Amino acid sequence: MTLCAVVTGASGFVGRVLSSAIIEQGGHVIGLVRQPRTTVDGVEECVMSAPDFADLDACWPRDRQCDVVVHLAARVHMMRDTAADPFATYRETNVEGSLRIARAAHEAGARRMVFVSSIKALGDSDGGRPLRESDEPRPIDPYGISKLEAERALRSYGQQTGLEVVIVRPPLVYGPGVRANFLQLVRALAKGVPLPLGAIAARRSMVFVENLASALAECATNPRAAGETFHVADSDDLSVTELARILADQLGAPRRLVPVPVPWLRLAGKLTRRSDQVERLIGSLQLDSSRIREVLNWQPPYTIEQGLSKTALWFRSSH
Asked: Per its UniProt entry, which superkingdom is the organism in (predicted)?
């Protein structure tokens, strides 16, 4: 039977890669998007105009029976949030919007919903050992809190209705087309800008976008995924120093990494009111992603070196 998947955020960074993966495997993708003609070839688009999926009933693809919904669209983490009430704004999109998707999926006869949450639903640091799915959640910002609330609301809805809910918590996602802080790092390295990243030992998990897409496709189809929560990450974790060195080499750029002591970086963060950004560089945030490998027998198809190589190749060819 051909898989039919509804993908929210199908025009986004992860959504485009996931859509391509499903189509390459012979499946059909219906993408819920805000702008037309923004998805990869082969995606059937359904355009929504209202925020937070408020007009979902009007645009849901009722003429086709779909098996699964992969919910990627979200209000993402922002360093400088200008909303008057950030908590309320995040909750409206990430909690209430996700529940609207779940209700529409269930009413349309879908058997499963794969919800792409975030490791920030657990917290921003690992406390000395890789975070497990069973750890006590301690989110610290509106984004992470809203993602945790969405997880709990969706689990409850699934228990009430029989909709199979699968939760996936990725860390930082990188790859061709990446934006935000990771792209800024790549740009700085490519220009040979000296960076104070030469003495950071703490390791942070990441996931290559094609590895994440592979895991999501597995979660959408594998019967053993029903009701599970999975952490998804690359097989190896790097420190920021190791990451910068590998990227510089892949970019053909000089390694200009100044070994600034971590306490000095923390002090600089306090003085410049950028402590949050600094902690994301120097703090440890590793994930234990063994559960998805054990339960679903899934393995990342790409190593972190291959993922970084593809990212560097994309950057060199497009910038």
From this structure: Bacteria
